[in-house]
Amino acid sequence: MKLHLSLPTALMGLCLTLVTTGEAQAASFTFTKIADNRDSFSSFFEAPVINNQGTVAFRTSEGIFAGNGETITTISNTTVSSQSPIRASRDISINDEGSVAFNAELEQITAPGDGRAIFRKGIFTSNGTTTNTIRDFATDGRTRITIDSPSINNQGTVAFSYSFLGTADSNDSTVVTTNGTTTTTIARGEAPNVDDTLGRSVESNSLNDQGIVAFRRGLSGGGSGIFTGNGTTTTTVADTSGIFSNLGAASINNEGTVAFNADLDAGGEGIFTGNGTTTNTIADTSGIFSNFGAASINDAGIVAFLAGLDAGGTGIFTGSNSLTNKVIGTGDTLFGSTVTSLGFFREGLNNPGQLAFFASLADGTTGIFRADHQGVPGEPPIDVPEPASMLGLLAFGTFGAFVKRRK
């Protein structure tokens, strides 16, 4: 297919290229900076999340923030100088209303009477204006609690897992969903009505709008599995009794399909999808890839993932083809410097095909960025000339330029 460009069209292409928000080599995407360390942030955690409006939530050493490339909203300020009682935060999730769910440690308090220190943790949601406590826990130092993997849906319900340590129920992890008022237990290792093949450890929760949670947990006989549940039924998506030797984090869409990374019994690893009935391979190490990180799936069934390459370096892809499915990779140019490392999370892809990711650059910049797809995800990208070739394009446009689409 050839695209004819008249002189005005070529001029327009030049202007558009000069104002493009980034210059990465994956030509079917433009790139937007959400935040970097040249702003007021000193360091970033490598797990940004994105909603269907293109708003990206991310964590820094200063707190939790959300941005769209134009404005940044403070979700939770965790610096000691702030008035917030929150002193540390971990995993985050964002819904289409811009509400961010996160787990956090609170300032410790002193118990009346004996003066014992009370340690507090909780699950919270905030849109930057109002902060709501979804669930809080307090321990007296003789026991500890771990809280992991909050995931919020568009109804404002949050899924997360927790376990107490130092008690008779040590390591007995529980997965729940709650809106702050009503709590539903999805799975608990020691509950009598739960399949006793399920082990106690549970993590990596992903919640869809139907209230179904995908989660990974250990098995009592060894190994691990990925399951989905709604508090009434539990479905096995994949486990280590078959072709898999180890399973990674899960990401579920509103169709009930789960994407995950896994190691294989036969060697190698891959990115897979499953719904409890069928399992499909998205990419594996039989081709160009050497290893895989987290995967994220949207409602169209597109799966994005972080992967290492046999040839060296890493990249973010939406399939097994290194050309048509590449989003960005190390060695690519981004905002005037070279990408040296990337980070991607299981909630990093939205339904419009935008991706949120962390990148570090050769000039010392680290930051959070958004990739905006310029076509249909999975289709071949359209070649976009580098800025150095723009003068040639402009001159050629006097007679009519032809840009051939890659096959």
TrEMBL record:
Residues 1-26 form the signal peptide. Pfam families: DUF7453 (PF24251), PEP-CTERM (PF07589). Residues 383-406 form the Ice-binding protein C-terminal domain. This is PEP-CTERM sorting domain-containing protein. It comes from the Bacteria. The keyword Glycosyltransferase does not apply. InterPro entries: DUF7453 (IPR055876), Ice-binding_C (IPR013424). Keywords: Signal.
